Amino acid sequence: MMKSIVCQQPGELNFLESTKPQPKPGEVLLKIRAIGICGTDIHAYGGNQPFFSYPRVLGHELSGEIEAVGAGVDLPVGKPAYVIPYLECGDCVACRTGKTNCCTDIEVIGVHRDGGMCEYLCLPASHAVVTEGVPFDQLAVVECLAIGAHSVRRGEVTSKDTVMVLGAGPIGLGAAQFAKVAGAKTFIADVNDERLAFAKAELNIDATVDCKNDVKAQLDSLTNGDFPTVIIDCTGNPGAMQSTFGWLAHGGTLVFVSVVKADISFNDPEFHKRETTLKGSRNATKEDFEHVVTCLSNGSVKSTAMVTHKTSFDDFPAIFPEWVKPQTGVVKAVIEIN
Ligand SMILES: [Zn+2]
Ligand SMILES: [Zn+2]
């Protein structure tokens, strides 16, 4: 038998006992060891995640040990692994060009199907990546960091760039770290003073930008009038996304990681005079995950620069309602299962 934490309906998490699953051919059975809590989980719990159905076992930021493998799978039992939670169809137009992150028919573990807030989880063996030398709590946030890493790759960031990451939440803190790894001069911007102070203390960034004050004026003085050559938006705020069109360097690139239920519009002469490049950035691919693991292993990126809270599997349902409140100061939380 095994225990799962089920989100029965918005605001309600329950323990459920079920039989331990068995891996089918091509699958792996993972003994879950750590689970990162993400905005998606918070929105699903809060009942404001569109197209979400209940009951659902949440959890898509996962690490664990290979417990057993199905027929035809050659993975070492007992070894640590992290999960790539995006299950792609493999033959749509995006998959055919290697862009599995934006598959037309994507299914995300813990979102569209039951996830990893449980003791054992079966998944396609191709989506469990054996990785030694990185602790489970860090492996659990590889997915979150990979989203930031992907946005930096989308921005084609190099050491010649000045990058502004807008939004100092977990994704933005990750993106800022990968922009630094790429060698760029990097600013992080937010309206929240505590988040900016956290970013300043934890990350080796070049400057913070206070979005409560005149952002354009701050960028003007930080860049001697050049403005950032890449802006990566991780705010989830339509107004902020719209403003980025006027904060970009001529010849620069905007990368929208955020997704909002709104239309974003821009002034065409402003867009045109800069020869603006505008890109979306969705999920991440295996290359991004591998880049994250390399950076965690060599210390160039720190998971501690975002994980502020931890709990055990047994305590999670009781503590989660507290963590959802902004005043708790959770940037990122991790559940550990021993
Ligand atoms: Zn996530
Ligand atoms: Zn596809």
Automatic annotation (TrEMBL):
It is an enzyme of class 1 (oxidoreductase). PROSITE patterns: ADH_ZINC. Its EC number is 1.1.1.103. Its cofactor is Zn(2+). This is L-threonine 3-dehydrogenase. InterPro entries: ADH-like_C, ADH-like_N, ADH_Zn_CS, GroES-like_sf, NAD(P)-bd_dom_sf, Zn_alcohol_dh. The keyword Metal-binding applies. It comes from the Bacteria. Keywords: Metal-binding, Oxidoreductase, Zinc. Residues 24-129 form the Alcohol dehydrogenase-like N-terminal domain. Residues 170-297 form the Alcohol dehydrogenase-like C-terminal domain. The keyword Oxidoreductase applies. GO terms for molecular function: L-threonine 3-dehydrogenase activity; zinc ion binding. Belongs to the zinc-containing alcohol dehydrogenase family. It holds the Pfam family ADH_N.
